[in-house]
Design goal:
By secondary structure, this protein is mainly alpha-helical. It has helices at about 20-25, 35-50, 55-65, 70-85, 90-95, 115-130, 135-145, 145-155, 160-170, 180-185, 190-200, 230-245, and strands at about 175-180, 205, 210. Strands 1-3-2 form a three-stranded antiparallel sheet. A hairpin with a 2-residue loop joins strand 2 (about 205) and strand 3 (about 210). The longest helix is centred in the middle third of the chain and has 16 residues, at about 115-130. The radius of gyration is 24 Å and the shape is extended.
């Protein structure tokens, strides 16, 4: 399977450019003039499938301090990118940096043809909830139910593939054998496309109507032996107290 490393810390990003690293390491991260730099970096993440939660949070914090500089399209892209690393809490972290006032329908002033930020956040929050509760089949049906969803994720290259990989990671951590039809609904693929994803990307095996997932340290069943180390004198003190008369 495509390697998806565990999230060591939200301020780590292996593909972060040096100039972004320098900004984040100093006081320049609070300079309004760096807003455009961060915005360009978000666009770069969308195009090359990299991800930098720490830098994106820094941009949202700048938007908090400087509301006139905020761009709804960039905020939306940050939230969509955060969805692609579920079940990490990145989406919630980003969401809590968006001022409630900007999410009010009355405050919406979208460009022609664009959805207001409040509606975009509402739709993306629905997707986040479905992923967080492992309702994967419903996630895909919801994503296909409204053209607005397609517009929201359009800027993020490989969005569906990134989500599929994350779903596969979650499956591999808890399951060793799964019904093919159910897994097809979870990754929203069928036929040859499904087999190619399962075998080439995930390195799993399809046998008839069953998909076999290799053993790993997460899905391996392990017996647990619980030993109680209680000494006899501890029992004696307990029994003694039971017979003591209250003062």
């Amino acid at each position: 399977m495509t390697h998806v490393p565990p999230n060591p810390s939200f301020d780590f990003a292996p593909d972060r450019p040096e100039h972004i690293e320098n900004i984040l390491a100093g006081l320049e991260r609070y300079n309004p003039e760096t807003t455009t730099v961060f915005q360009d970096y978000v666009q770069q993440q969308c195009e090359d499938r990299t991800y930098d939660c720490y830098a994106n949070l820094a941009l949202l914090k700048l938007y908090q301090f400087n509301p006139p500089l905020s761009k709804d399209e960039t905020v939306t892209n940050v939230l969509v990118k955060a969805l692609t690393v579920f079940p990490a809490p990145d989406f919630s972290l980003c969401l809590h940096l968006i001022p409630p006032s900007s999410l009010s329908p009355a405050a919406a002033s979208p460009a022609a043809g664009d959805a207001p930020l409040s509606l975009a956040v509402s739709h993306l929050s629905t997707l986040s909830s479905l992923l967080a509760t492992a309702q994967y089949a419903q996630f895909w049906s919801t994503l296909d139910s409204d053209d607005l969803y397609a517009d929201l994720v359009a800027d993020v290259a490989g969005f569906e593939e990134l989500i599929r990989v994350r779903i596969a990671v979650q499956v591999s951590q808890s399951i060793r054998e799964m019904d093919r039809g159910l897994l097809e609904s979870w990754v929203n693929l069928k036929g040859k496309e499904f087999e190619k994803f399962v075998e080439d990307v995930c390195n799993w095996q399809v046998k008839g109507k069953v998909v076999n997932i290799p053993l790993n340290k997460e899905n391996e069943a392990k017996g647990t032996v619980v030993r109680e180390n209680v000494k006899f004198d501890q029992f004696s003190r307990l029994i003694k107290r039971a017979y003591e008369q209250p003062a």
